[in-house]
Amino acid sequence: MNDMYAKDISKKVKTSLHSRMKEGLYVSGRCPFGYMKDPNNKNHLIINEEQAETVRLIFDLALKGNTYHFIAQELTKRKIKTPASYYNYVWNTKSINTNCISQEYGVWVDTTIKSILTNQIYVGDTVQGKTKKINYKLKKTIKNNPKEFIIVENTHEAIIDRDTFNYVQTLLPKNVKRPEKKRFYLLDGLLYCGDCKHRITIRYQNKTGRSYTTCDYYRTYSKYHVCTTHTNNYETLENVILEEIKSVCEKYLDKSKIKDSIGNMTFEDNTLKIKKQIESLELTNKKLTNNLDKTYRDMLKGIIDEEQYKRISDSLKKEIEDNKSNIDNLKNEQIVSNKVDKKQIEKYIDEFLSLEKPTRELIVNLVEKIYIYQDKRIDIIFTFKNVT
After folding, report:
1. How many domains does the chain have?
2. 3-class secondary-structure state, position 206
3. 130/258 same-domain check
């Protein structure tokens, strides 16, 4: 009896919380870094300026093409307090040894940087329901599928504007798998195998004193002959690629033409999730169309009557139209979320056209991927389609 009562109470509490989440009310205990609870409304977030400055700095560093690890090290060097040490400092000051920097300011780690850079809460949206309890008897929680997150847009003031946030998401894949190396490579994280589409890594050889590229997939599974080495002298390769980028610029020396078309420039689709959703809906529609054709044939053969055909066909047609509408919405979402900031891209173009000493920041903002083929062909994919 007590067990049934506990289960019933748990269900009611969960239903109540979900209902409040869907209303955009913030119901979690601790506020996300950069925010605090409104003293006049505990379910509303307001900006904590001290922490918000750190959040803005993290996004600024990410815009320059830096890795999670580099940003974490930079914040630690600058003695900027981590979220954990900040809460420690506020709630448990007696335990802090102010002579010890690591305890007073904390040490930033990659996972903290990643969680901030990918958290939609900073554009003003409430994102909740990320975890759930296994059952009412256990306190252990598990992560929810992102599709199950409860997201309500524009519920509080944004720290990062939506365009900047979306832009950073397109830059992250270029940097997340770049290991910290003693040597800096301008094109690190941008090189891909043109044959198997896996990453190409850059390795320094002490014996020769030179750096070489290798297909990562081949290096890992060489005994299975899944690909080829794709070995190139990195310094030579970098020079060839930079010359290729310059030649592309020369085709568009008329800046006015470039700038007139900036409004139509969009980033290459980096959102695999949206792409998969579109492909899935298109495949579903193909199957539904086949079913519609089969239903028509069944009516002609007398297997079903005209009334049954009409009822089934109307249902199938409605589902097809709904899917088409969803596909259009997803495609619009791709375009809107990946719009290039006009002033920013003009700045990059101006720098690019006078490309004497390219920076990592400039390269990652202009180049999406670089495919290297075994036959030495090079295919550069730019972040704006008009230049490809």
Report:
1. 3
2. coil
3. no
The string of pLDDT tens digits covering residues 244-283 is: 887 776 665 455 454 555 444 444 444 455 677 788 788 8
CB neighbours of residue 213 within 10 Å: 22
Structure tokens at 178: 């770049």
**What's the CA angle centered on 41, arms 118 and 87, to 5 degrees?**
50
Question: Concatenated DSSP letters for 124-146?
Answer: T-EEE--EEES-TT---EEEPPG
33 and 107 in a common domain: yes
Give the 3-state secondary structure of residue 152: strand
Task: Using alpha carbons, list the distances in angstroms from residue 351 to 136, 146, 151, 356, 359.
Answer: 59, 39, 39, 9, 10
Nearest Cα to Cα of residue 168 among 56, 70, 77:
56
The residue segments making up the domain with residue 326 are: 272-337
Upper half-sphere CA count for residue 353 (Cβ side, 13 Å): 15
Helix 49-63 with 68-77: angle, nearest 10 deg: 130
Give the dihedral sign, CA 34/36/38/39.
negative
Would you say the pTM of this structure is higher than 0.70?
A: no
What is the widest separation between alpha-carbon atoms in the chain?
Answer: 89
The CA-CA-CA angle for residues 263, 268, 272, to 5°, reads 135
